[in-house]
């Protein structure tokens, strides 16, 4: 194998190892960035829902209360208001979801599914836990869910959720006596859960990753070509010229043209040294012929 072949083998091997390592690291980085972007959007959505609940609790409830003319008013419930507002968002973004499921809700439609119940039980078992993030597969692709616990910290909540006897009559008349009671202070009874699809962010991350890797590959090829051109003109061609002169001299052709490489690099020094050696050899042969 010639010098060019050995050089290309070494540099291509080095580039291949570096390219593969960079590919693995960059793919992980792009996916993590996409996940962080989705998570940030989930936190923004949850903050918006919290703002709706705070508004209802501070502005609406003091004005209308929880019942009117003996009828319970669900719109005065902050959680109900936030979920209702988010349903309008879902009309444009059906894969986005906001729920506040409970293990024992007053409204059966708010009962937690199996995966939502896992969140709530985890919060119940770990009182200091304030947030959970999980990914799951859905019929439309991978989805990221952000969950925060709903704990009973206000004793006033037990008025509606303690016992049926203590709950407002309008509430019991609307939802019955069998669900949503028996809650306890400081207990994690439900969770706020925001779910956002990851299909589009992951697709964009994959596209950005492939684009970056293609650019990196093109740059690597350009570098290899430039190095080969530099190797050819700086090393291989001068060495071949010196080798040709050396072969001619070794076969007795003392009239072969000298080769001198201009410059101050190692090949230039080699050409000067070879020419000195050649002239010394010519002088020695001439002395022997006298």
Question: How would you explain this protein's 3D organization?
Answer:
The protein is an alpha+beta fold and 290 residues long. It folds into two domains: 29-197, Beta-Lactamase; 207-289, Orthogonal Bundle (Helicase, Ruva Protein, domain 3), CATH 1.10.8.500. It is built from seven helices and six strands; from the N terminus they run αββαβαββααβαα. It has helices spanning 3-64, 78-92, 114-125, 158-161, 169-175, 199-250, 266-289, and strands at 67-68, 71-72, 97-99, 132-138, 141-151, 188-197. Strands 3-6-5-4 form a four-stranded antiparallel beta sheet. β4 (132-138) and β5 (141-151) form a beta hairpin. α6 runs parallel beside α7 (266-289). The longest helix has 62 residues, at 3-64. The protein is rod-shaped.
Keywords:
Helicase, Ruva Protein, domain 3; alpha+beta; 7 helices; four-stranded antiparallel β-sheet; Beta-Lactamase
């Amino acid at each position: 194998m010639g010098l060019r072949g050995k050089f290309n083998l070494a540099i291509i091997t080095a580039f291949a190892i570096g390219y593969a390592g960079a590919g693995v690291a960059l793919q992980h980085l792009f996916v993590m960035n996409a996940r962080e972007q989705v998570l940030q959007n989930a936190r923004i959505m949850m903050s918006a829902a919290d703002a709706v609940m705070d508004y209802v609790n501070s502005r609406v409830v003091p004005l209308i209360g929880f019942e009117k003319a003996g009828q319970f008013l669900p719109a005065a419930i902050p959680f109900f208001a936030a979920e209702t507002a988010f349903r309008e968002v879902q009309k444009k973004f059906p894969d986005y979801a906001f729920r506040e499921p409970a293990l024992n809700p007053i409204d059966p439609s708010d009962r937690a599914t199996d995966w939502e119940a896992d969140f709530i039980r985890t919060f119940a078992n770990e009182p200091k836990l304030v947030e959970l993030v999980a990914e799951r597969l859905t019929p439309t692709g991978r989805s990221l869910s952000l969950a925060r616990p709903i704990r009973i910290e206000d004793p006033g909540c037990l008025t509606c959720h303690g016992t049926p006897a203590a709950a407002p009559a309008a509430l019991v008349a609307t939802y019955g006596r069998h669900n949503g009671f028996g809650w306890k202070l400081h207990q994690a009874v439900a969770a706020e859960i925001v779910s956002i699809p990851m299909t589009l962010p992951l697709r964009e991350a994959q596209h950005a990753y492939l684009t970056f890797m293609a650019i990196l590959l093109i740059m690597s090829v350009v570098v290899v070509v430039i190095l080969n051109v530099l190797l050819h003109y700086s090393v291989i061609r001068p060495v071949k010229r010196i080798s040709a002169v050396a072969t001619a001299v070794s076969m007795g052709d003392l009239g072969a043209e000298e080769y001198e490489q201009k410059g101050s690099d190692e090949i230039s020094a080699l050409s000067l040294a070879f020419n000195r050696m050649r002239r010394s050899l010519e002088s020695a042969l001439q002395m022997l012929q006298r």
